[in-house]
Amino acid sequence: MSVGLLKHVVVSAAVLALSAGIVEASDKPMNVLLLIVDDLNTWLLEEPTRYSGRVVAPNIQRLAKQGVLFHNAYTASPVCSPSRTAFLSGVAPWKSGVSRNGVKVGDSKVLQGIPSLFKTFQDQGYWVASFGKVTHGYDTGVNYEASMNHKRTPPPPGAPLNGIARSAGGNLTERDWGATHLDENAMSDKRLADAAIESLHREHDTPFFIACGLFHPHYPWYVPQKYLDMYSLDEIELPPMRDGDLKDVPAYGQKLVNLGWDEKVKENGLVKEAIRGYLASVTFSDTHVGRVLDALDDSPHRDNTIVILISDHGFHLGEKQNWTKGTLWEEATDSVMMWRVPGVTQPNQVCKRPVSLLDLYPTLVDLNGIDKPCHLDGQTLLPLLKDVTASRPPGAITVYDGHMSVRTETARFIRYWDGTTELYDLTSDPHEWTNQTGNPQFAALKANLAGLLPPQEEIVEPLPSRQAGAVNSTPRKPKPENRNRESRK
For the chain, what is the mean pLDDT? Predict the structure, then answer.
């Protein structure tokens, strides 16, 4: 046994012994199983203010009841790459400059030389595996003992199946849904779950850290027909929406919404069909999450494995006229997060304290008695895992392309790159329909929340993004054939 691992075992035992007297000290370091579900919003958590309809997700819901469910867990950034970069590096997007998709993550000077979550555990002697969409552009500095990349489900014959998923130029876009032509056994998410299951069945002479990232319910929502059949269009309920919801939103906030797609979905009468496509994709992923959880529970590792399930961010399904992520409102920032920690968590616990996905890294090193790297921006969740009512500093911050939001238990404040703002009193306005930023009755609340955000001058300028509309937009270079075509004109 290495010196580092021996130290890890001794300290880990001490941490468990101090866990409110719940268990005897263990002489084994705990394994980690991290499950990441892409674009999964919080509808399956059965919170009426978000969604009152039926979501078939028995496996994730079962896991939520086996430990601590964080009802107010917020992403560090509401899109894939910066969210994952943040919780795997432990560095907040407003420090790294990685706060939008389409950037070169390696260009962040702040991230260079910082040990990632996986690297910290590998250095402690852990067997580390990564399956599927886990890092999305961030180099964790780890040579994985086992790994597999995710693959998008290819378009079925006749796509777009919804009839509208085409760009202005006529090209097929990802915003399609319907029944796939593939056998389920050939689908990437099923194969990724298989790989995680195989790793759980292995004999391990060192502790393991297995991360498995499933792609659904990311667009396109192509799933086997049986999952679509679980949702009757007559039974699909719509989320709370308000006409003209964007009238009191500043220009920068309105730019984050794809109004054209919202109009297209509504004009073609496809609102319920779109929601069914998303929910069917959630159920598809839930099925394969369940297979992984069953494999762990049937293995000798169950009682010595920390299980965390998260989504990288939330997802709009028509709220605020949006059908994706990439905003600073509740729908895009609220993430799924639940923990089952042997000897620490008790079943059926729900925590309402606002927390961040940035808290993942410091919590895992705390639970395993590993020296905490000095660069971490999150806070340990250990007190809340023991007692969901434990005190905690207020506010969870989300950053998108330099725009910032802070969410407390009762309010949200948004500050855009140009200094324009939004303020919502969630006690009376849980859907964030009325911007109170100019209301003098809320001046004190606004000042308090604004003080929870880092000053504008301390924010690292967002790295250049290839996406249109970014604060620092860098257009994609035309393909060689396009350049040749231009030269021939």
Answer: 92
Contact residues for 232 (Cβ-Cβ < 8 A; gap 6+): none
* 422 contacts 333 by C-beta, under 8 angstroms: no
> What's the CA dihedral at 374, 380, 383, 386 to 10 degrees?
-130
The count of residues in the chain is: 489
Distance separating alpha carbons of residues 467 and 463, to the nearest angstrom: 11
Percent of the chain's residues with pLDDT above 70: 92
Cβ contacts of residue 411 below 8 Å, gap of 6+? 423, 424, 425, 426, 427, 445, 449
> Does residue 263 contact residue 243 with C-beta atoms inside 8 Å?
no
Q: Please write the tens of the pLDDT for every residue from 104-152.
A: 999 999 999 999 999 999 999 999 999 999 999 999 999 999 999 999 9
User: What residue has token string 């998303």?
Assistant: 278
Active site residues: 80, 136
pLDDT at 8 over 50: no
Strands 221-223, 177-179: pairing kind: parallel
Mean pLDDT (whole number) for 465-486: 68
C-alpha distances in Å from residue 234, one per residue of 45, 168, 228, 252: 22, 32, 13, 37
- Alpha carbons within 13 A on the beta-carbon side of 279: 26
pLDDT the model gives residue 18: 41
Average pLDDT over residues 85-97: 97
Do residues 268 and 200 touch, judged by C-beta distance below 8 A?
no
User: Given pLDDT bands bounded at 50, 70 and 90, which one contains residue 469?
Assistant: confident
Radius of gyration in angstroms for the set of CA atoms belonging to the chain, rounded to a whole number: 22
Beta carbons within 8 Å of 441's beta carbon, 6+ residues apart: none
DSSP, residue by residue, 271-312? HHHHHHHHHHHHHHHHHHHHHHHHHHHTSTTGGGEEEEEEES
Whether the bond into 160 is cis, omega within 30 of 0: yes
Cα dihedral across residues 364, 366, 371, 377: positive or negative: positive
What are the residues whose beta carbons fall under 8 Å from the beta carbon of 157, sequence distance 6 or more? 181
Give the pLDDT of residue 27. Answer: 57
**pLDDT number for residue 20:** 39
Within 13 Å and on the Cβ side, how many CA atoms surround 75?
37
Give the integer Cα–Cα distance in Å for 189 and 37: 10
- Three-state SS across 342-403? CCCCCCCEEECCCEEHHHHHHHHHHHCCCCCCCCCCCCCCHHHHHCCCCCCCCCEEEEECCE
Q: Which residues contact 220 (CB under 8 A, 6 or more apart)?
A: 152, 153, 155, 165, 174, 175, 176, 177
